[in-house]
Every structure is written in C-alpha cells, then in structure tokens.
Amino acid sequence: MSGGPDSTALMILARRRGLSGVAVHVDHGLRDGSDGEARVVAASAAALGFSFESKVVTVPEGPDLEARARKARYAALPPCVLTGHTMDDQAETVLLNVLRGAALSGLRGMRYELHREGGGRVLRPLLGLRRSETERLCQIAGLDLVRDPSNSDLRFRRNRLRAEGLPFLSEIAGRDLTPVLARQAAIIDEEVALLDEWAAKLDPTSTAELMHAPPAIARRALRLWLRGVDATGQDQEGEQHPPSSAELERVMEVVSGLRRACQISGGRSIRRSRGRLRVEPLEGTRP
Fold this sequence. Notes:
Elements: H1 5-16, E1 22-27, H2 34-48, E2 51-56, H3 65-76, E3 80-82, H4 87-100, H5 103-107, E4 113-115, E5 121-123, H6 131-141, H7 157-173, H8 177-199, H9 207-212, H10 215-227, H11 245-256, E6 261-264, E7 268-273, E8 276-281
Helix pairs in contact: 1-2, 1-6, 4-7, 4-8, 8-10
C-alpha cells in the first residue's frame, strides 16, 4: 500500500470480495514526509477493517533507482501479496521493455501471477482496470489518498512515457493504445509460456545443449537463467528485468566460441570454460 489510488482501490475491492489481510506500507527513505503517508494508509486500512504494518527499507546505491527500490520493497513484503498494478501500468511496462530491447519477455509485460522463491506469489488482480477507474472508486469511497510527487518527475522514463509518450502514440494511432498494448501482452504471455516450457528442458550452462537447440529456444533458456541469477551465480529473489536482446546475442557469441566472455547488466560477466557457462562479477565491482 503506497496510499495512492491504485493500491487504495485494491484494498477497497479486496474488502468487497470479503478478503482479510494486512495493508503493508513500505518506506524507502527516499523523500521527506513518508511518515505522514504511512498514517494515511493506516487510516484507510482501519476504515476498511484491515490490519496495518509499516516497514522501512534501505535502497542500495547504484543505477536505476526504480529497479533498486522495487527490489528492496519486494524483499520486505510477505511471501504472498496483492499489488495494485493497473492496465495503464501494464502498457507503460510493455513500452519500457521495448525501449530496453527485451524482446518477447518484455512484450508479455507484467504477469497476473508471479511465483516467488519459497512458494510465495505476487498477484496483480487490477490489470484489467484503468487508472481513471481506481481514482473514481476512491472518490466514491471518500478515502484520503497519498500523492507521490516523484510520479510527476519526468527524469524517470516511466513518468515521461505516461505523461508524453503514450498520449503522443495514441494521437498518432487515432485511438487509446493502453488497452491495445494490454491485449497484445496477454496474447504474447500465453505464447511465451509455451516457449518457456520447451526452454526449461535445456541446461542453460551447457554450451553443447544450447548449440544443438533451435536458436529461439536456446535464447529463451539463457534468458530464464540469467533473469534469476546475480553476479555470484546465486538465485535472486523477486522479479528481475530479463536480459536485453543485445545482451543475449553477446552471450550466444560466448556459447558459440566467438568470445571467451561478455558483460551483461547487473554487474555480471558471462564466461565459457570446458563447455560450461558461468556467471562472475565484473572486475572492480562488488556483487
């Protein structure tokens, strides 16, 4: 619960469905006034009959502030959670992933259900709702909302897409592109799930298996593997960005022997030795 319209609408609808639970507010310590936001969330939770918890997290230094804050937030949440992501968030995520060059894994957007380590789950039941609908629902309920000023900061790429990119593309298309992008993401998600099934049968660290597999399946096996390991080769908890298409092409060159090693995001180096791939931290970086 951020206290904004989306997470507040989630709590309203959860109550209407007869659910019980805990509203969790996560303070990232990135701006002043977060204690006041927690009080707003606590009041809304009490009004709807939910318990309330406030957690303070430390966001580590590094690039991509939004990604680092998201990782810290999910690490503080219980194993099974509901989040208030909407159709508008989905459309923005798809476009952001297109800009990153994330190929099919990016075009599928956010999944309704994400499985976490240890048997946990993240559910996003509002992916069929628009942001304007969550705003209206909160108005009807008469609940106070938190307005995060960082959501208007155009230095963040998502905010700029929201304020400028999507409206501009919708104008060119002559229609609202948000539901179009959301429908395409749902279709692609089904197709990617099938490819993932096939890719899961490969050992992504075996260059022999990768070389004998169809290139599309080999790339998917690598994508699944690299999405889930950090610079030390250990499993990462939470949702990570998949490697970009350009990064995967570099890794495939290592697989084929054209390179001995390559760099990818997350401070990682991919190396080949005796027919196996391994992940190492880049020199001069700490995992």
